[in-house]
Each structure stands twice: as C-alpha cells, then as structure tokens.
Amino acid sequence: MTIRGLAGYGLAAALAAALPASALTVVVADGTPEIALRVGAPGGTISLVTFAVAAATAGNSTPVLGTTNVAAGSSQGANFPTACPANNVRVWTRARSTLATPRVATLTVNGSGNLTSGGNSIPFTNFDWITSGGTEIASGAFSGSPSQALLTFNTSREISVCKRFRFLNTTVYPSGTYNGQLIYTLQMP
Fold this sequence. Notes:
mainly beta, four-stranded antiparallel sheet, 0% helix
C-alpha cells in the first residue's frame, strides 16, 4: 500500500487566533488495513509556501521563514481539533492493520529536485523545517534524497505534526519567482 501526498513549495524571491498544536500520536483501533496521508490543506489541495527574500539580506545566512494560508495547517478530525500555528503546514498520517498482522508504516519525502525560475535553480537542500512540539517528525533539513525517511511507526496509529519551513539563505540567487514541489509518500508493506 502506498499513498503519495503533494505539497507545493514555491519561492517568491524579490531579490532587490490559532492555538499551538503539539505533535501527537494517537492509538487507533485495529481493523481493515488502511493508510492515509495529508500534507497541507485537506482535500488534495496543494499548499503553497512562499518565501520573500529582501535584496538587502540575500545570502546573509539568516533563514527566511515561509508563509502559507490557514488551510495548510487546519485541524484534522476529532483527534487533532486544533489548528497549527500560523504559517505552519500540517503533516498527518494514519496507518491501521489487524491485530493478527501488525505492520510498520514509513513516511518519506522526495526533496531531490530544485525550485526553478527560467534557467535558474535552487536545490531543496537549501530549505529546512521546524516542527511544532513532539518528536514524531523531528526538525530537520531536506537531504536531497528521493526517499528521505521522516517517520517510521507501528500501525494502528495516527500521527500529526506542524512544520514551519525555512529558506536557509546561504547563497545569493538571481531574482525571480522560483517554483518547485516536494512529494511525500506513506508506505505500509
């Protein structure tokens, strides 16, 4: 079983009251095997995260926080009724199996691509994230791997975290509007 979730992260670079929602694991009832994944807004919508880099601070190694819409961090059902803090993206997974056949689920992200603007590009390795609360998906950085492991867990669990993305801002890139997409995959063999 494999589910893919798309989360679009654009970089708009012009180089010239929600309560905190902690990361949490909830045990769910054993039953028919299933997996589900949500990254960002519910309903299959691709959430856009935007980074505005001022020309005066371009390349100074001060991370630039991404912004996104409220839907990207909205609540997730009865187990996660509180929205993420502003400008965070919710990552929610659910994996269930029968009691007789426990399984292990793995969440990965493909960050091997680049954000592009015309012939210019910025690799996803120039981005990281800060996780709100908990350790289910620790704060980290994109490695450039097509299958970077973020989380492995025993089934009959529901897990949710809120992530705030940052552009690391270590290099001066040509001005432009850069666009790229990350692909999250949840698998349960």
